[in-house]
Amino acid sequence: xxxxxREGPQRISLGSILLQAxxxxxxxxxxxxxxxxxxxxxxxxxxxxxxxxxxxxxxxxAWTLLVAYLLATTLLAVNTHRMVLMESPGSPLHxxxxxxxxxxxxxLIGTALWMLYHYLRLIVISLTLLxxxxxxxxxxxxxxxxxxxxxxxxxxxxxxVSAALFLVIGRLALLLPxxxxxxxxxVPGVWRMTRGNAxxxxxxxxxxxxxxxxxxxxxxxxxxxxxxxxxIAVALTLLVEVVAVSLAYRELAGxxxxxxAVPGQPPIDPHA
Length: 272
Known about the structure:
Elements: H1 14-27, H2 29-56, H3 59-85, H4 97-132, H5 150-172, H6 175-180, H7 187-193, H8 198-217, H9 224-253
């Protein structure tokens, strides 16, 4: 039976999603441990090992462990999306051909989004500095005193550019849960699906990582215990972030998917 067309874009429940992203993992801790315990442990372990390898000067080991860290990140994100959005997510460590293809596609999309964000950010910041911070000084003249500290200026530009880019990245990020569910969703499709939710998705995708990054900049890690605490904080933040993106996808995806392909009621029910 055809459902009536939706009048205007659907607005996601930002407050509810952010709250449930923290509440649901605690409320369903047994499922979280079962589905994400091993990927979380791998993520923390590889993160610590990669940091220590980089500090020791072993570039080969550092790069190898970094790749392992990124693979563990992909595994954790895919398992979390499936845990939240599927009735039967399957074994978290079952690596048959479809699972490997799913992980590869997810990693490819995640890498593309990362590159889009960081390279556009660097380009915009570089162009801004090029046109506003001229280095030309006529012969015999002293360099002018900058009106503001250049680093403060760069930080403000960086913040503005990042906020603007997250309005785009936040919408494209819903390609990731679709890939985790083996659902076909194109860039034009996700753009239509997220219409009217750019700033809400920007907050969901950007607020937690930015807050954690700011917090970590304020502290100095002096020993192994502090490094371990940092890696645990990063892993748990990633878990909460993926849950939030899953919940946003759940609210928006229904009208853009074949009814026969929509997953059943998820094991983690926000209304339970």
